[in-house]
Structure formats: C-alpha cells, structure tokens
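Researcher: Next sequence.
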Amino acid sequence: MESELTFILNDQVVHTKTNPATVLLDYIRKNKRLTGTKEVCKEGDCGACAVLLGTKVNDKIIYKTINSCLFPIQKVNSKHVVTIEGLNKEELNLLQYSFVEEGASQCGFCTPGFLISLTGYLLNTTKFDENEAINAIAGNICRCTGYHSILRSLKNINSSFNAISTEILINNKVIPEYFKEIPNLLDKIPIEKTQSNFENTDQFVSGGTDLFVQQPENLLTKKISLIEQIVEPQIKVIDNNLIISGSTTIEELEFYITENKINVKLGKLFKLFASSPIRNSATLAGNIINASPIADFTITLLALNAKIIFSNAYTVEREIYLNQLYKDDFVIPEGTLYASVFTSSIAHGKIVSLDISGARNTQGVIKVLIASDIPGINQVGGIIQDESLLAEKEVHFIGEPIALVIAETEEIAKLACKKITVEFSPLKVITEPREAYKMDSLIMPPKIFESGDISGAWEHCNTIVEGVVESGGQEHLYLETQGAVALPKEAGEIKIISSTQSPTAVQKVTSKVLNLPMNKIEVDVLRLGGAFGGKEDQATHWAVFAAFGAYYCKKPVKLVLSRHDDLYMTGKRHPYSSDFKIGLD
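Model: Next structure:
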C-alpha cells in the first residue's frame, strides 16, 4: 500500500511513493539520510525529532513545529518540511552561534530539536519575548546542560532583534535565502483534493499523536485515511455556541479562543496541554475518540457541558553542524540486515519449551539465533559473571533476551519476534533486598571492609546514631538509545560501531562470546547522545548481539533499541537500602 506524494524537503522538491503510514522521521533519516533529526523516545515527549512544517495559507507560508516521529508522511503532501540541515547551508546561523557561545550543547543529541523549535517560534512572531521562547522549547528535553546555558543563549538571541519578520530572519541568516522561493514552489504542487471514497479504509488517522505511539507497526499494514482529508479544520460561533470541527488542532483552537477573546482562562489552559509540537498535531477528535483516561481534553469538555456531533464519513560548533555522527546516523552499507530481540515476559522461571518456527518462516527473516548457536561462552556479565547473552534454561528478569531475529528490515524483525512462543515454569520472585538477605539469596557474597577494632571502638563513643537510608532506583535516560552496527570484514574480522563508554569491554566480551581472538574485533565509538554511566557495561550486550548476527549472516547487522525496549531491557542504577551506625567520641 503506497501513496504518491510531492512536497518540498528543505530546498528540494521531492516526488516519492511510500507507505502513507510511514512516519516522517523514518523517511527523513532512512530514505534521505538527513540524520540531524534524531530518534529518541518516538512518543513525542523529547523534541529531538522536531521539524518545521510549512503550509501555504492564502499568499503566506505558516510554519509549525511538529514531532516527526508521530507524523504520518501522507500529511506532508503539498507542504514544506524543514529539517536542521535546511537551516544551515553555509555557516553557523545566529541561533547556532548563540548556542556555541554559551556552551548550550554538550552531547549534542538534543540540539537540533531545540534549534528547530526556536526557529519555528521566530517564524511565528513579530517581537521576541523570552517567556514565549521558553514555551516554544517546552517540548524539548536536554539531559546534559541543566538548561541554564540554553536560557542564556535565549537572552543573546533576544538582544539581536528589535522586530522580526521572514525578511529580517533571512537578512540575519537565521534562515537561508531559499525560504523566499518556497511560496512559488508550492504553487506548482497540486493540493490534494478532499477524499470522498473510504472503501477498504482500515484506520482513520487524525493527529496521530496517540496512534503512532501505541501501534506504529500495525498502521504500516493498514490502509489509512486522514481525517483532514474528510473535513477541514473549522471553528465558528453560532447562537453563542462554539462549533469546532474534529480535525481542528489544539493549537488552532487555542489561537482562535485567545485572538477572539472568547475565554482567556480556557486559552491559558490549552497552553498547558502537552507541548507546542504536539498541540500543532493533536486534534479534538483524536483526543476524544481514543477514550484515554488521561486525555487532556475530555475532562475540560465535560466541565463545559460540551456536545459531540457525529457525521457519516461516506456522505557547541561541531555539534551544531552535526558533521560527526552518532551510531544510528552511520551510513550503513547496502544489504545491511536488522536485528530484534525476543525477551522474557516473566521475572523468574524455567524455560519449558521454545518455538521459533513462526519467526523462521516469516518472509524476510534471515536467521533466528538462540543460546545453542553461540560459538563461544554465553556470558556478558560485567562486574559479576552472572548474565547470559541469551537465556537457555532459566530467565531471571522481565526483558531478558531469549532469541535474536535477523531480518531484511527492522519492521520484519520485530514482527517475527511476536511469532516466537515460549512456555515457562514460574519460580519464586524476590525483588526486595532485605527479603533476599533473610533467604540467603544474594547475588554475591558480602564484602567486608574494616580497619582497627570496630567492636571495641563503640565503648569509647559518647553518641551513637543508628538508622536506615533508602534510595530509589534510577533510569539513566540518555537521549540516544542503546545500539550498535556490526560489519564483517576480511579474514573473519568484525568491526563494531557501538554507542559505548567501554569499547574495551565490547571487544573482550564479543571475543569471548564468538570465540574469536580479540585482534579480530575492532570497536569504533563515534559520539554518544548522552550516557551518564548507562553505557558502560550495559552497552556491551547490544554490540555483541549485532556482532553475533554479522558472524552468522556474513552481512552488516544493525540493532538499535526503541525507547520502550531500552527502558524494558537494560539495567539501571540500583535502589539501595542501607543500615548505618555512627559513633562520636
């Protein structure tokens, strides 16, 4: 199921035929190799995937910031898409230079999204307001800087303008010259007519901000129709009632209410919903129809005693340039295969049976690997050698890898994983350290460090304080998820591109698992999109998986975890429960 689309991507007119449910982010990165737009959460929460979408309204182009990770490519037809590469054609622009001057970029993974959001704000205002600029980047997350340097860069930008217009932005090199030609180029692209025939439609899509989080793979196999092709966004007042079409976005509604001073408090409330990129896509109909208990709009509409009318559809500098790449930006060779991991759904149990035939028989699957296929030692533990690469007889945590699927595409690999079946015999689960201590079920024997006569020292203490300290576990939440690319070379050698803080660990463990000499394992680290300790030993597994696949298939293999899988499968900073006793003489 493919649709023909024509749109402008930065300064180039693009004609393409692609699955209409493909999200714009995947097309930008995989088809066009514009890797400045980053994939992090794929849920519209972080802003790293932000792009600008320009729509011609009368004789003017209106630009909005959107999350490309949730935006079906069908919606960009006859429009202008701007990525971070489209903002910088020759040199650092004003925004980029301000980020460099204030050190507002560290790992750099979030920087393109911030710059896109700020550019979107400048294209929609006539006077710089620092608070409004902060609101514009409210949907962008940075895990490194603490935001202070970013806020300082905003002050520098503020001092650069007395007034703002598209012409002023071009003259100040905030946006390139080609923006002047976009209206004429869009005039030559026919606007898609309103759709009237919905036969065989499997799924209607409105904003897609929830659908493309919950079931992105399923949508790729369905024929979708856009609500905006059925009814145009429309807001009007009839008999003192506000009539809003279902395809109206939250941002359009907020703007109408504020501009017409219908309900100032309601307008302010809408600004609190999600972030600007989400509000630019999320629609009234979509927010209602998914029936989510946490939907922003539903409770507001209930409070306003609203009615729903249903219709029948059939009637820093180097970081700013991004010339250096992260592991998922690496230009992979043609014929590269993709890996996905099948994992345990229980916390502890014996593996009674494992059936991988469904995955093996899936068209496009090249290989399904299990523990018995490992040529070396099935062990990837870091400090303690207690973690198998692939579980063989017993699983010890939810998300523990059991099988590795290698396929022609990432989508096929993930689909095949769903066809693997496993039967468990559950065992006792211990999740509290004090319970484990009582049951003598510790991961490792206690280590005791002492100096002098500890027991005798208490007699000389005037004050003794005792207690318990508890600290919760933590997710490192680096923006760039775990992953690696492995490329087989001559004489049985393997090169691994890994997002790791410990390349030597990757080399050693891969050598051990594949039973290869270390000098046949080459590990290259490009740049990390954040790590914070979460890519020390935890990055090793995914590099070994990619190498494991390349070893068997004799082709490059790429494995990059989705945000969900990263949270689900990787280790964290552990929670601690500590007893203390302090004596003072």
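Model: Residues 540-553 form the longest helix (14 residues). The radius of gyration is 27 Å.
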